[in-house]
Write a structure and sequence with these properties.
Elements: H1 2-12, H2 16-47, H3 50-65, H4 73-83, H5 89-102, H6 105-119, H7 125-142, H8 149-152, H9 158-180, H10 185-211, H11 227-255, H12 257-282, H13 285-289, H14 296-326, H15 331-340, H16 347-359, H17 363-384, H18 389-416
Helix pairs in contact: 2-9, 2-12, 3-7, 3-11, 3-12, 4-5, 4-11, 5-7, 6-7, 7-10, 9-10, 11-12, 11-17, 11-18, 12-15, 12-16, 14-15, 14-16, 15-18, 16-18, 17-18
Length: 423
């Protein structure tokens, strides 16, 4: 059996035993999280109005848009540092810097709310209040999120998965109870951000306690890590985040909160699959940092196969469960979901390329790709918005994926053509 695994590993260019060991925990995590997210979307569609669900998604997207202020790229730099044998003390430094930097989000969101509510009168009181709550919780929500790198930097995925499943179950349960009792938008936002923050801080202090223990952690010099690299990845994550957070804001601005609810339900399945694929790809970040060689051409083929299989599985799910779950009132979402589903075939390759260039420190290329994509996507949407809203919103997503592949894939092939076929 062992010889068989090793033979397959040589053929496909991957360490399959490593993938199987850690892939189980990653699959479990995202399987549970995706299921809980599915239950939550059903709760919104069955218990609340499209308007409220659209407002909820808008507030979370607006808050997430400023996540760059928490310096998220330092997480990857810390992951790299720990993967190379440094101590957990680096996590404390990143969290401290992230919290201080995140405080700047409070006046920015507050200024936006004041302008939109008092000057332009475009925000309802409920939406404005929810945004202000999001601003206050912003640093507490984002700063401690570095805790997981203390485990994943050592390729220990099981502890991360267990903790994330526990926190996700608690948060979704609280939100579902809130929906049953028809609490206000502000309460829903506070539950989501506040409970996630509490769990993250608890997990962070676990890491701090361990790093101060008698495990040889926290030695002098162990907290060194590449700050410049982390800041470059922060910019990269920001432009990448634009492709996730700008569409809901643009759609709500031009088509309203109700259409945003239609879009978010349609895009949920594609996003859930994307999360699983990204998680599997991230398993190999520690390997990239440690210089493990992977075969270029075979991995490209594997990503295409993974994308096609993901699309076919998604299509089966849409056919079987979508209408029974969400009902006829979301028939428009069902039509949009079918328009969006084929884009999933290209996600694995895009995710792999981003991870590859990130690990090799070529963040400028990734940033360029997403800057172009986030300019081109909205332009396509604005050009088409007066024709068919469903087709216009789907074209927005396709444009982002297409542009990033057009920029990154030729550069990857150029690297692959040099002397050897391995990374």
């Amino acid at each position: 059996m062992r010889n068989g695994i090793l033979t397959i590993s040589r053929i496909v260019g991957l360490d399959l035993s490593y993938l199987f060991t850690n892939g189980f925990w990653v699959a479990l995590r995202y399987g549970v999280v995706a299921f809980l997210g599915l239950l939550l979307t059903v709760g919104f569609t069955r218990l609340e109005t499209k308007e409220l669900f659209g407002q909820y998604q808008f507030v979370l997207s607006a808050v997430a848009l400023l996540s760059v202020l928490s310096l998220p790229g330092l997480n990857i730099s810390a992951l790299k540092s720990i993967a190379l044998g440094k101590g957990d003390v680096v996590v404390r430094r990143v969290v401290r810097w992230s919290f201080i930097s995140s405080l700047s989000a409070i006046p920015i969101i507050g200024g936006y709310v004041a302008y939109e509510y008092f000057v332009r009168a475009e925000l309802s009181l409920e939406t404005a209040t929810a945004l202000l709550v999001g601003a206050f919780l912003f640093p507490f929500f984002y700063a401690p999120n570095t805790w997981y790198v203390a485990y994943e930097g050592r390729s220990l995925f099981k502890p991360v998965v267990i903790r994330m499943i526990i926190s996700s179950c608690a948060v979704v349960t609280a939100l579902f109870v809130g929906l049953v009792f028809h609490v206000h938008l502000t309460v829903l936002v506070a539950l989501y951000l506040g409970l996630n923050a509490l769990f993250s801080w608890y997990f962070y202090f676990e890491v701090v306690s361990r790093s101060r223990g008698a495990h040889g952690q926290g030695r002098k010099g162990d907290d060194t890590f590449d700050v410049r690299y982390g800041l470059a990845v922060t910019v990269q994550k920001f432009v990448f985040g634009l492709s996730e957070n700008i569409p809901p804001i643009v759609l709500s601005y031009f088509l309203g909160f109700e259409f945003l609810a239609v879009f978010q339900i349609a895009f949920y399945f594609t996003n859930a699959f994307s999360g699983v694929l990204a998680a599997f790809s991230s398993i190999y970040l520690p390997k990239f940092f440690n210089g493990v060689k992977l075969m270029h051409t075979k991995i490209v083929g594997q990503n295409f196969v993974a994308g096609i299989i993901s699309f076919l599985f998604l299509a089966l799910l849409l056919k079987i469960i979508f209408i029974p779950l969400y009902g006829e009132s979301y028939r428009e979402s069902y039509s949009l979901a079918w328009l969006l589903a084929p884009v999933l075939a290209f996600y694995p390759l895009r995710i792999y390329l981003v991870n590859f260039f990130t690990a090799r420190g070529r963040n400028g290329l990734v940033i360029l790709a997403y800057v172009i994509a986030n300019l081109f996507g909205p332009s396509v949407f604005l050009f088409m918005k007066n024709t068919d809203p469903l087709l216009a919103s789907a074209s927005y997503i396709y444009s982002i994926v297409a542009v990033t592949l057009v920029v990154l894939f030729p550069a990857y092939l150029l690297i692959a053509s040099r002397k050897t076929d391995s990374i």
